[in-house]
Specification:
The protein is an alpha/beta fold. Helices cover about 35% and strands about 20% of the residues. Bound molecules: nicotinamide-adenine-dinucleotide.
Length: about 240
């Protein structure tokens, strides 16, 4: 196992201690908005201004947040582990990259990128988005949206992710509730393909029974401990 392929799937829990709310946080952004209004193509068609405002707030939160010890530990694993490490995230923030990770597979897109709903062009976007912004490729106005995957849309990079899971020796899910598909189904597939499965979470997820092993606690503590163990106990 020491030099096998580790596939890591992260969710909102890995960024929670950086101050970015998870999906279900009491008092968090998601409890103030209905996801059907702000995270679906239908919601965007109904009220694009509301959707842009919602993501403008999330983009500002993201830019003000700092990576935590869990992000840093995953980056350390990528640097020091002798085998292969694949990092797939459901998070739209850039804290893995700022924590030192490379090759992050963002299956739900990235808040710091824009997507033109007319021509499909994707490009970096750091500030607030407004209804009269124009596409940097086709120049259409009123079609610029955050490059995030909404409910009802196809996540990015799925073929590559399934291939990495098929090749994995250990599948580790960190800080994800196991409630949003297709990511919630990765563990069953990994197990079916013969990988060991590990859940690292604050509390058991909705698909806890499918995992072989569990480490419970805040990610800023459990993830550095797990990584140190994998790398041979060095701090
Ligand atoms: P989720 O909110 O459904 O679940 C978060 C999980 O993290 C829960 O199981 C919770 O117990 C756990 N958790 C909370 N604090 C933790 C901590 N300190 N340490 C370890 N675990 C902790 O999030 P999800 O499973 O990622 O799925 C929800 C969807 O919402 C995803 O599609 C995701 O893209 C999106 N989302 C992203 C962000 C972000 O980019 N930072 C934030 C919120 C939601």
């Amino acid at each position: 196992m020491r030099e096998g392929h580790i596939v890591i799937l992260t969710g909102a829990g890995v960024s929670a201690e950086s101050g970015l709310g998870t999906f279900r946080d009491v008092g968090g952004l998601w409890t103030k908005y209905d996801f059907a209004d702000v995270a679906t193509p239908e919601g965007y068609a109904r009220d694009p201004g509301l959707v842009l405002d919602f993501y403008n707030a999330r983009r500002a939160n993201c830019r003000g947040a700092e990576p935590n010890a869990a992000h840093a530990a995953i980056a350390r694993l990528q640097r020091e582990y002798q085998g292969r490490v694949t990092l797939v995230t459901q998070n739209i923030d850039d804290l893995h990259e700022r924590g030192g990770s490379s090759g992050v597979i963002h299956m739900h897109g990235q808040i710091l990128r824009a997507l033109c709903a007319a021509c499909g062009h994707q490009w970096g976007w750091a500030g607030a988005m407004a209804l009269d912004d124009h596409c940097h490729s086709c120049a259409a106005v009123g079609t610029v949206r955050p490059d995030v995957v909404w409910f009802g849309e196809m996540p990015y990079h799925m073929e590559e992710i399934w291939a990495r899971i098929a090749d994995s020796d250990l599948f580790a899910a960190i800080g994800t509730s196991g409630s949003v598909y297709p990511a919630a189904g990765f563990v069953a597939d990994a197990r079916h393909r013969g990988a060991r499965t590990l859940e690292i979470n604050l509390e058991p997820s909705e698909n806890a029974a499918v995992f072989d092993q569990r480490l419970l606690g805040p990610a800023s503590e459990t993830v550095p401990d797990w990584v140190a163990g994998l790398l041979g106990g060095s701090g």
